[in-house]
Design a protein that fits this description.
Helices cover 50% and strands 17% of the residues. By secondary structure, it is an alpha+beta fold. The strands form two sheets. Strands 1, 2, 5, 6, 7 and 8 form a six-stranded mixed β-sheet that branches. The longest helix has 39 residues, at 166-204. It is extended, with a radius of gyration of 25 Å.
């Protein structure tokens, strides 16, 4: 039979002084490690942010191709659009959901961002003749006012945009992330359904005895990143220039 040993505060302090590793200390170390990882991630996203907007002209030239190619359209773009306002907080372009102890991250996709930039609310004419796109906005849902910052793909000019509807910025962009989440979940369900069908075929053929449907559960293959996309587009334009 187990026995509960009650320890007084004095004994507890002695054990702590002797080097007792407390749960609190373990938690502090975990928090410290997570903060270090976040710092690395922030620097990584800052680098990718600068890389993307330095090559925005290249991206916009191939906009239709990117949207039409799932491998490119599904690239993470949550760090490329910033926004927020009084009472509603920061624009959410990335969400994490805990399902059965597994963290699933949903990010705004590049194809979705390019579609957002097709709307008049997120575009403005630049003096050079090109169309600039909104990449940052702030405002208030109460007054409806806003201030935004756009960048021109051609001359890289920063354009300040005032007095457009804050709601048409914030709620439209927030809704697009929700659409991306819905798309991913439906895709996940569809792939599990396919795995079930494949498993039943194997069972019917007598080739599969154990209930391991998950072994037929497959994803979309290797994830494409921004750097790979840019390399592909540079290579494509180089080959086209050689043929010309």
């Amino acid at each position: 039979m187990s026995q509960i040993v009650r320890e007084g505060f004095a004994q507890f302090c002695k054990r702590q002084k002797a080097g007792l590793l407390l749960v609190g200390e373990i938690q502090k170390q975990e928090k410290k490690d997570q903060e270090a990882l976040l710092d690395v991630q922030e620097k990584r996203f800052e680098r990718k942010y600068n890389l993307f907007y330095e090559n925005l002209d290249l991206i916009m030239r191939h906009k239709d191709e990117i949207i039409a190619t799932p491998r490119y359209a599904n690239i993470d773009a949550h760090y490329l659009l910033e926004g927020g306002g009084c009472y509603v907080g920061r624009l959410c372009t990335s969400r994490q959901i805990n399902i059965a102890g597994t963290l699933i991250t949903f990010n705004l996709k590049l194809g979705t961002l390019l579609k957002i930039w097709e709307t008049g609310q997120f575009r403005i004419a630049c003096r050079c003749g090109e169309t600039a796109v909104i990449r940052r906005f702030v405002g208030s849902p109460l007054s409806g006012g806003s201030n935004a910052s756009a960048i021109c793909p051609k001359c890289k000019a920063e354009i300040h945009v005032k007095n457009r509807s804050f709601g048409k910025y914030y709620f439209f962009a927030a809704g697009k992330l929700n659409e991306d989440i819905e798309m991913v979940v439906k895709n996940l369900i569809a792939k599990w359904t396919i795995a079930e069908v494949e498993y039943q075929k194997k069972v019917a053929e007598g080739n599969w005895l154990d209930p391991k449907i998950a072994s037929d559960f497959k994803g979309d293959g290797e994830v494409c990143n921004l750097e790979t996309l840019l390399q592909d587009l540079w290579q494509k334009e180089l080959e086209e220039a050689r043929k010309a």
